[in-house]
Write a structure and sequence with these properties.
- This protein is 0% helix and 58% strand.
- By secondary structure, the protein is mainly β.
- The chain is globular, with a radius of gyration of 14 Å.
- Strands 2, 4, 5, 6, 9, 10 and 11 form a 7-stranded mixed β-sheet that branches. Strands 1-3-8-7 form a 4-stranded antiparallel β-sheet, with no helix packed on it.
Length: 116
């Protein structure tokens, strides 16, 4: 049984911070990378950042040093610390896990709303 469980979304004012957390439950699988995507209303899902078990990061330009991704491979968790949030960061954020052998798993999504 595989589960991807996200937490930490919510409503925050512009300039505020949120931390998203994701836990992968699937003891028979090895993780290649974990990461975050987001989808704003009326837009396609886009990459925020991924991080491999060896700490190699792929990140979108809009992170601009505002977001930090980190992984704890021993616990199969990934966090996304988001600072200086902007209204355009409003979206549903999805956790993505790529395993060995290759397979993709997704969380149910967590809403992040940045509004005054």
């Amino acid at each position: 049984q595989v589960q991807v469980v996200e937490s930490g979304g919510g409503l925050v004012q512009p300039g505020g911070s949120l931390k998203l957390a994701c836990a992968f439950h699937g003891s028979d699988f090895r993780i290649y990378y974990m990461g975050w995507y987001r989808q704003a209303p009326g837009k396609q899902r886009e990459l925020v950042a991924t991080i491999t078990s060896g700490n190699k990061i792929e990140a979108a330009d809009f992170m601009e040093g505002r977001f930090t991704i980190s992984i704890d491979i021993a616990k199969n968790t990934v966090n996304l610390q988001m600072n200086n949030l902007k209204t355009e960061d409003t979206a549903v954020y999805y956790c993505n896990v790529r395993t060995f052998p290759p397979a993709d798993y997704w969380g149910q999504g967590t809403q992040v709303t940045v509004s005054s």
